[in-house]
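Minimal example, chain plus S-adenosylmethionine.
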Amino acid sequence: MPNLSDIGTIKDILKRHQFSFSKALGQNFLVNPTVCPRMAQACAAPQGEGVLEIGPGIGVLTQELSACFQKVVCFELDTRLLPVLAETLCECPNVFVRNEDFLKADLKKVLQTEFPGMRVSVCANLPYYITSPILMCLLESRLPLDNITVMVQKEAADRICAEPGTKLSGALTAAVHYYATAEKLFSVSRGSFMPAPNVDSAVIQLHIRQKPPVQVADEAFFFRVIQASFAQRRKTAVNSLSAGLGIAKADIAALLQSLGKDERVRAETFTLQDFADISNRLYKG
Ligand code: SAM
């Protein structure tokens, strides 16, 4: 089996398959041999059984996952990578590659059919152009996942792992923390990838909560309130909520005042409980 911890081997495989990187598909492949074993081990602890990978690329992380898990199922959208993966994973009989768009997959069905009765984790070096949709898709489907261990851009990692109500928090922070706890595991420099992106990255791990930390009358409306609050980041929460929800500024200001908030308050200071209070009070049923 080709040794993908060797950059010369990676370059040789890509050349033989006349592979050209697609920017549109977020193709920055890992070439730092220390990163994938760390990711796979962090994800597998304490005893992973099955793992879903999004975007195996040429299979560098997949080889590591194959060694740590009983079964690996990967979603790779780029058909050109299938012959490459057939070569690099030829000695990994527990790996199954699906040539599908992960965002269009029926994940509940995939879990039931591919991993019956198994504990399942997610591990991936995410295509950065769809970081938020992938995370929200994983969290909203309420799958019984052990953990989600993913590489994302450093800025996204900082946002996701920030506490709601602190300076770095945004809509994704609040949405992720509703479903899961988030922890930054380690940083990865841009030079660890081929081609090197313009930003550094980090590996984060999410653990899905048994139940949300706040009670909301309507989840869809709760998420609308979060989106609206952050839609115009430089504006006050009164202005953003009024514009986003089509409610008079005076009514929003009165509501915030009744919750003990100044009318110039900004959304990044809101905790999850604040978002729950605001959405529960505005929700009309
Ligand atoms: N895992 C490899 C690595 O670490 O070297 C590749 C990671 S690369 C950042 C992202 C991978 O996701 C690419 O192989 C790309 O083709 C694939 N991809 C992009 N969009 C996808 C989608 N919607 N569904 C499945 N795979 C996708």
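Residues 25-30, 54-57, 60-61, 75-78, 101-103, 125, 127, 130 surround S-adenosylmethionine (CB under 6 Å). The beta strands are 29-30, 50-54, 71-75, 95-98, 120-125, 145-153, 180-188, 193-194, 201-208.
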